[in-house]
Write a structure and sequence with these properties.
Blueprint: H1 2-8, H2 12-17, E1 26-27, E2 35-38, E3 44-45, E4 48-49, E5 76-95, E6 103-111, E7 120-125, E8 136-138, E9 143-155, E10 163-170, E11 180-182, E12 187-196, H3 198-207, E13 211-212, H4 218-231, E14 237-242, E15 251-252, E16 278-281, E17 292-295, E18 302-309
Parallel strand pairs: 14-18
Antiparallel strand pairs: 1-10, 2-5, 3-4, 5-8, 5-9, 5-10, 6-7, 6-9, 11-12, 12-18, 13-18, 14-15, 14-16, 16-17
Bound molecules: calcium ion (CA) (3 copies).
One calcium ion binds near residues 54, 55, 57, 63 and 164.
Amino acid sequence: MFVWRLLCTVGTICCLLITNCRGEGAWLRQDTSWVVNSTGTPRVSNGVTYDAAKALDGDTNTYWNVMDTWRNYNNWYIVLDIAAPLNLTRIAANCNGDTNHDIAAFKLQSSQVGSPYSWEDVVSVDNVQGGTDQRQEFGGFQGTARYWRFVVTRTHGGWQPYLTELNLYSISPGCLNGYVFHQHSRRCFKAFNDRTTYNGAVSRCSLDGGTLAIPRDNTTNEFLIDLKNGVDNNAWFRFGLTDVHQEGVWMWDDNVPLGDFRPWGPEEPNNGNGNEDCAEYFPESHSKKNTWNDGLCTKADRKFICQLSQLGFWE
Ligand SMILES: [Ca+2]
Ligand SMILES: [Ca+2]
Ligand SMILES: [Ca+2]
């Protein structure tokens, strides 16, 4: 196991060797709103607050600096709520590089419940280098939780840590409540059991931070068909494809032109009555079952499928 971990630092080689490394994981997109608590009071100087969010802002010029702790306090922590339970396997930290305030040791804890938390150690690390502001990565652990606590248990000079950046690596996807993850497309999907127009559906997806679903290939299309039929196999479900801008020129809702994959139903798209511009699935119960139809955008009796990125992941 140790050898695998060693090789894992060489990225590509590792990915040839072990299944955990098939490129499914990713460094999470940091979010300052993850910070829900931290030790002491942050330093405020010249109108700048050196709060814990400074360690999650993606900026190596800003750092967390807590004021009211003494030397060798050794219990400086940041509590994070990463919004969904994710499976973390690596952590990276950047320090200030001045040695005195550089982290020497830390532990990472997780809690399965929100406040009041129930912290359990996931990993302890005591070989963090001082005197450098370079990013240092640490692996060899695995834990799944929504709540995490990063605890600095020692610094090289005993003084409070100047933590510049903290990064987390996850191998599991996380989806907003009610959404289902689809590995192939690396997207989260939800078939809504509500009826509305095309614009209504776009708005509803947008509320969740997403768009109407985009089944660009057969694998994703089959996944969505199962998903919608699980919700209602008599309903028509909208997805994100229209020819509203130019008749007959079908565009996905992310402005990518429709490619060769286009499983329209028999005699579709027919632009019925000259104004069918929004794509939808025929119901499972229809004779053209589960194929695509061009329908009226304004019809309010259609259900719909939304898609989102995985929580916390870069695109
Ligand atoms: Ca920063
Ligand atoms: Ca049309
Ligand atoms: Ca039609």
